Amino acid sequence: MPNLSPRAPPARPARRSTTRIGLLSALVVLLVVAVLGATVWLAAAYQRNEREEALSAGTQAAVGTLRARLAATENVLRQIADEIDPGMPAARFGPGASRLIADDPSLLRIELRSADGALLSAADPVDPRPRIDARQRGALGFETTLAKRSAMAFSRAVYSRPYYVRTPDGLGFEITELAVPWGAGRGGSLLAIRSLPRMLDHLLPAEFERAHQIVLSEADGTVVARTSSGLKGAGVYAASAPLELPGVTLVLRAESLERSPGLVPGVLAATLVALTLALASSGLLLWRDTRRRLAAEQALREQHALRKAMEDSLVTGLCAYDLEGRITYVNPAFCAMTGYRADELVGELPPIAQSRDGEPGHRPGQGVGTGRHGFETEFARRNGETFPALVFEAPLIDETGRQTGWMGSILDIGERRRAEELNRRQQEKLQAHARMAMLGEVATALSHELNQPLAAITSYATACENLLRDGPMPGAAGSASADARATLRSALERIRSQSERAGQVIRGVQSFVRRRRIEREPIPIGALMHGIEPLVRLQARKWGARLVVRIEGSPVVYGDRTMLEQAVLNLTRNAAEAMDGVPPGRRTLSIESAAHREAGRDWVRVAVRDFGCGVAPDTEGQLFQPFFTTKPEGLGIGLSLSRSVIEAHGGQLRREPCEAPGSVFAFLLPPHRASEAPRTPAAQAPVDMVPAEPPALP
Fold first, then answer.
1. Which CATH number fits domain 516-687: 3.40.50.150, 3.30.565.10, 3.40.50.1000, 3.40.50.720?
2. What pTM, to 2 d.p., does this model score?
3. Residue 634 and residue 631: Cα distance in Å, rounded?
4. For the segment 661-687, what is each residue's pLDDT rounded down to a tens digit?
């Protein structure tokens, strides 16, 4: 029988997993060891590089200090050379040379030589310094002669190559000589003998000299001087810098006394790295454990922030209730509506105002106001006021599907109701005023225009009655009867003509009351003013005024020529009549038109100015009201109709301030450009010739 017992699972996958873990562990250990070793090496290399850079910078600074001090000595020697008198060379040489030797410890002797090399004078130090055998200085050496000739040839200071000299005590050292010419080619040279070992001991910075072994050599590596401290460098850190002097170039080598970096800093750095790796591993494990929790918290915070921002930005009030109708949440918009704080509303019933019959208003959860259709109610504010609101409610369902309360959206409709009521009242008021204005205007125009023809009809009718009563009968013979017939016929003809005139007046008033459509066209303002200038001159002549017309350019406006002309004529007529009581010499009517810019827009300005009595302050606010006039026989509709015409063209009519006596009335019109498209028929809407602002009802 076959063996049906269950077999154990193969162990190959477990072995593979163990092998992988072992290899991974070994790799991690090798990586840690490599990182620690690299850290120790990098720490030592960093310290070595840092010290080398510091030594190089210190060497450069020491060479700079040495070069500066040598340059100072050269300047003093040039001053001494400039003060030497070729006739008496040794007279001013000694004091200056002695002071220079006292100030510079590396100088051993300063000689005054003639052009052929003969010794004229010399200055030696008074303090104990190595002495130069004067007998050896009788004849100049090759290096000195070469430096002296170069200095005299090029008229500048030149150093000689270092060379070895012996002292009277049998010792010796390397020196260099600085040759400075004097006498401008007719004199000779100053020779300053400088000890190179003393130059290193006394002219270098003391701190740099104490911390390093310093060697001075020529360009080919020949050592010419070293510090006399006896210190020996460690041979680990060294730096060289060229010391370039006029005529010769030397090399300054500094060798630090410090040894190689120790092992302790590297070990400390490696330990720090190991601790860092351990902390990083711990942080990784902690991050792995808290990653999901942080992600969930971040998502929750984002959702909460988004919901909070949405709720705070709403102008609609949000209010959540529990099943008992108590508030559990309100947004800032609802708090602003009611005047309560959120902590004052949470846990309380909504501030629903009572109805007019004293019954409490609608409470949440009563089954109305859900869905798309809400209900209207009134809420009470903190100060006792009430406001109407439109409420939409929806049930609150938790994750288990159980209803926990209601969510209400509240819209304050108080402003909308007030706007609707104000609009309704305004419409009713405007309609009533328009009807009254039209009736008053028609009655005034009819009474004014019909008085004259009716009076004429009455007069002619009375004349006919008198002729029929007193004159001869139409059938009588004679010339008197013929004259009577002619007179009667004339009177009747005049009665007919005056009746026709009365009819025309009535038709004119009717057309005046009717709405008129604006016939717009491009109109140059200059052509408009020139066209009405004769009529304006007649007006001015009638009132004895002088007319002044100023037209700057000819900007184009888009409008009805007839209506604009009528507006200008109304203004000029008012200006001429305003100067009735002014002496004739002061009666001046001025009309100006020009392009104008105001409030960042381009306009066309037309101004009419008079030098009359001006406008009283108590009447200035009523100038543009219909039927307001200060003239005994005026109707008070000229300015109102003119303003309606200008505003129908997109402009404005105003009274502008005036310094001198008189008044200025000006209107602004938008300019028309050829590139603009013609106005649409909607822009050519009919203009109501009845004043736009009818008088207020008593």
1. 3.30.565.10
2. 0.37
3. 5
4. 788 888 999 998 765 545 433 333 333
